[in-house]
Structure formats: C-alpha cells, structure tokens
Specification:
The structure is a homodimer.
Chain A lengths: L9 H20 L6 H13 L5 H12 L4 H25 L4 E2 L2 E2 L1 H5 L1 H14 L2 H10 L1 H30 L7 H29 L6 H24 L2 H4 L5 H5 L4 H9 L2 H12 L7 H13 L2 H24 L6 H15 L2
Antiparallel strand pairs in A: 1-2
C-alpha cells in the first residue's frame, strides 16, 4: 500500500540525527597530519560539504530495528559514508560534473591528478572503521562486513563501467532491463542494499539471511535513482546542488532517455542518436532543450515516475516481509517512511 | 660491502619463476563474467602486459627465507601485484603518461572515465586474496596483513599527493630530504617495505618485529626509484617501455631535478623554474633537452647514482642484520642479489 499522505517528519529528523552522529565519528577517522594541503584537507572536503547521510542512517536504523546498538553500527556507517564520498569524487570526473553540493567539484578545484588520488585515499580510509569492527563485533562479523563492503565496491564499479561505457560508445540499443541492471549495480548496492545488510548483520549478530535485503534495496534504491534523475530535469538548481538538465548534457542513460529512445519516431530517434554521439562540448544548450522537449512530448518523465511509484510499492512489500516480526520502533518507522520519502523529496 | 661483481643470474631466474606463479594465481582472481568489454577485459590488461614481478617475488622470497611456504605467500603476492597495477593506471593518468609496458596507457586506449573506474575495481579486487588468507593463515595473521595493505595504500596516496602537488604548484624549494620522504611513501612502501613485511609475517607466523623492514625497504626502494629515474634519462626506450626524458617533460621532481635546482646558478635556476612552470603541453622538446643538458653540466645523474650506491650499501647492512640468523637458501641469496640488481638493471 502506498502511503503518500503520511507526514514523514520523522525522515528529515532522523537523517539529521544519525547524520550528525556519523559525521562526529567520521571526523575522527580523517587523518590530521601532513600532507594536509595536497591530501587530508581534500579528503575532508566532500564530507564537510554536508549531504543527506541517507546511507549511514539506513545502516544505523536497520541495525537498531533488528535489536542492535547505535554504537555498534556507527563505524560501519562511517565507512559507508567515506566510500560514498570517494566514489563521488571519481564519478564527478567521469561525468565531467562541475559542481557538487553547491560548490565546485574536486577536480575543478584541485585538478584531476589530486582529485583521483584523494578518491583513492578515501576508498582506502573507508576500510579502517571496518577493521576496527573486530573489537566491538568480533572477528567473524567484522570479516563478513568487510566482504560485503568488497562486494559492494565491485558492484559499484561494474555499474559505473556499464554507464560510462554506454556513453563512451554512444550505445542506444538499450532497454529498461539494461537500465535496471546498471542501477542495481551502480546505485542500489551502495545506497540501500549494503547499508541494510550491514545493519541487519549487526542487529542480529550475523544470524540472518541477507538475500531478501537485495530485493528490498533494489526496489528502494532504483526508486531513489529514478527520482534523482527526475529531479535533474525538474528540480530547483539551488537545492539540487548540481547543474539542471546536466544528465542530458552528459548523455547519461536515464530511464527517461531510454524510454525516449524506445518511443521516438524513426527520424526523431536518428536526431537524438546523432546529438548523443556528439562530443560533450559540442552538445549545446539548444540540443539539450530539444531532447528535453521530446521527453515531455512522449511523457517520459511521467512514465519514469510511474515506474518509481511501482518500485516503492514493491519495496513496501519487501519491508513488511522483513520487518513484520520486529517490535515497533522509531527506527522501523523511519525505514518505512523513508520508502515513500525517496520519491517525494525535492 | 658492495658486491657489484656478482653474476646475479639468480635474480632474473627467480623473478621469472615467482612471477609465473603469481600470474597463474592472479588470473584466477580476475572475474571472467560481464561486464567484460567495459571492465574485466580492462582489469586483465595491465597484468597481462607483463612486468618484472619484483614486488610479488620479494614477498614470496622473504616468506620462504623466513621458513614459510610458497603457497602461503602466493595470495598476498597476487594482492600486491593487483594493487600495483591499479595504482599504475591512476599514476599514468596523473602523469599524463602515454605508454605503459610498450603499449598505449589505459586512459589513452579506453578513455579517462573507464581507466579511473578500472583502477578502482582493481584496488578492490586486490583485497580478495587477503580475505582468503584467513583460510590458510588464520584470522589474526590475515587481519595483520590486511592492516599492512591499508597502511601501504595510504602511504602510497600520501607520496602521490606530494609528488603531484609539487608539480601542480610548481614547488621548487625542495631538498633531498623532501625527495626521500616522498619516495619512502610513494615507492618504498608498496615496492619493498610491504612485500618484505608481509613475507616475514607469513614466514614467521606473525612472530617478528616488522620495524627493521621499514629501514631495509626504504634503502632498497629508494635506490630502486633513483635508478628508475636515471633510466628515464639514459635508458633504451624499447626496453624501458615509456617515453625517454618523459620525467623532465612531466616536471617530475626527481633527485636529479632537485639536485639541479640546488646547484644551478641564479639565472640558470630562474630559467629552469620558468620552464617547469609552463603547462605541460607548452614545454617543448627543446626545453626538455636544455634542462637535461644542465643536469649533465652539474653532474646530477652521477650524483644520483652515488646516492643510489650508498643506499644499496645501507640496504646490504640491514639485510645482514635481518637475515644473518637464517639458514642459507636460494631465496635468501635472491634477496641479497636483488639489492645490487636494483641499481645495475637497465
């Protein structure tokens, strides 16, 4: 059942609460020694710019909903946030994004070589809290979480490979199933699957089958990604923190673009393929506006929203299977409200 | 005592032997599933181009010299080689290198976004054999090696930050101590310190103080790096596999360049600083030749070779302290001969 009318004040409240707890511990994992100017000041930059803390909050809330303690989940939450920020730096380079969280992207501010290196360092630093897990969670649970971190990083790299490969080679013979597989890998594992799985591992002390969390996280994370792509087209630039319509400019294979390629008339499609095949710098604002107008003409944004809405329904079903035997709690309520929040946020 | 006259046939023989063993297991750690074209074919590319296998061989030989078994060190050797190749991909981007091991560099062949992502994936894949270590070495030793891998990756990132930061900001107020610190971090940890430490951990089952290996690896690795930089100036392009004089073109802060900046006359120095401050593409072959001629005029290459030779002597001393109580073995002999090999190879 969709519950789009719920007030959902709990989501921003708890994102703020768990986000603050995560940032407090995260700052203790950031080295403060030299080299500062060329490394550790840069490592601290993206995390200090803020962000919603969705991933660490989902990890902590899942751990608590399953009976775990905040302090046992916090290190893993920090690790997730560090890994997320590391990948953001590299993604911004790959996407030629100029802005991140309302400021110039790392490679614009510091140059490409230092940006790549900073992302590398953050990926490595994201392992430290997971090593430290063995003191609170024991060696076996710590190793299970490490292996899930490794799996997640590989899934992310596979998804990123598909996305940038399709763009590089101007692959246009793509269908919804291709998009869903790419998003499962690139977005869902890091954003929803892994945080839920790690939370459940910690909450249950390792005594739980993690497979259903792949389904739950897939439905939730895909709805989240579609909404993110929709906001790139219709959002408010100031609150979005990135360039509006930037995805079209980048030639990013969003659900809307794939839908457009499927629905366009032959001559329309040829023109779209031609524009997508231009080097990024040759793609003008007028080209972008025209592609955007074709998306509107074929109802691609409405279609994407319908898909996201169905995915939210599926995520709610998976949630009820996973959480129905758990006692009611603020954390359980948070996760339930988060499911609709992902497509209602702006 | 320098033993420059030893025949040293053992070094190429054992590099070939341990290199082959490492490559055989490494290939089993390379995923063969999709996405191949945009990820796993690329992951396999640099390792398949060959390379000397210095790092994995030092790891295996140290493990065996300290009483361990080849099969117990092989996974860690694979991990070291994967991490090394991952960093090569990112280094080639940062250095704008066009060739690697006689072929176009990854970012030239595949484009920047896929090259960054491939390096990321390989860094993550380098952890898998270290996770698997727990089955053969037990959880505690496996975790110690993981922590040394993390330390090494961070040291490498710190060294890389210094090197590219100095170049980006055209830092010229540098002295030999700055160079040595940068090389300790960027080269020695991954090339000599970490392989020796992991080998000794495996050979002794964890019962050894690892501190002396930092000294041994520092002396050996720095001699290795200086020789590498010298070969960039005087080597044979075909066997070197990279562009000759490329370091000067890149403005790389080698010992020769730092020595030149220290020894140059004021007007000569101003000109060098000016040329180093040009964007890379504005630095012509004539500029490079002129800087190179100034290095010759001030005996910078001879000086660097003297430093490397002294470091080899220091490494031999540390070697004798570390290995004198061990029984003679082919592996011990290999490491001893490796010390002079690093500055005699061409």
């Amino acid at each position: 059942m969709m519950r789009l009318s719920s007030p959902q004040k709990l989501v921003p409240t708890m994102l703020a609460e768990y986000g603050a707890a995560t940032r407090a511990l995260l700052s203790r994992y950031l080295p403060s020694h030299e080299p500062r100017k060329y490394l550790y000041d840069l490592v601290a930059d993206y995390p200090r710019r803020g962000g919603r803390a969705l991933r660490p909050s989902l990890c902590i809330a899942t751990a608590r909903a399953f009976g775990g303690r905040l302090e046992d989940a916090l290190g893993s939450a920090v690790s997730i946030e560090l890994l997320h920020n590391a990948l953001l730096i590299h993604d911004d380079i790959a996407d030629e994004s100029e802005r991140r969280r309302g400021k110039p992207a790392m490679h614009i501010q510091q140059g490409l070589p230092l940006a790549i290196n900073t992302g590398d360092a953050m990926m490595v630093l994201s392992f430290r809290p997971l090593f430290d897990n063995r003191y609170s969670l024991g060696p076996n649970l710590a190793m299970s979480i490490l292996e899930d971190a490794e799996r997640t990083s590989i899934e992310s790299a596979e998804g990123q490979a598909l996305e940038i490969g399709w763009r590089r080679d101007n692959v246009v013979d793509l269908h919804e199933a291709d998009y869903l597989l790419m998003v499962l890998k690139k977005t869902c594992w890091l954003t929803t699957i892994y945080p839920s799985r790690v939370g459940a591992l910690i909450g249950t002390g390792g005594g739980i089958d993690l497979t259903p969390f792949v389904r739950f996280g897939y439905f939730l994370g895909t709805a989240f990604q579609i909404q993110d792509d929709v906001l790139n087209l219709i959002g408010d630039e100031a609150s979005y923190g990135k360039e509006l319509d930037g995805d079209i400019h980048e030639g990013k294979r969003t659900l809307m673009l794939i839908r457009l390629l499927e629905r366009a008339e032959p001559d329309e499609k040829s023109r779209i393929v031609e524009l997508l095949g231009l080097p990024r710098r040759a793609r003008t604002a007028e080209h972008v506006r025209w592609i955007r107008s074709r998306m509107d003409a074929h109802g691609c944004i409405d279609y994407a929203r319908q898909v996201a809405s169905s995915l939210v329904g599926a995520a709610q079903h998976e949630f009820s299977l996973l959480h129905s035997y758990l006692p009611p709690s603020r954390d359980r309520q948070f996760i339930e409200e988060l499911i609709t929040w992902v497509i209602e946020r702006s």
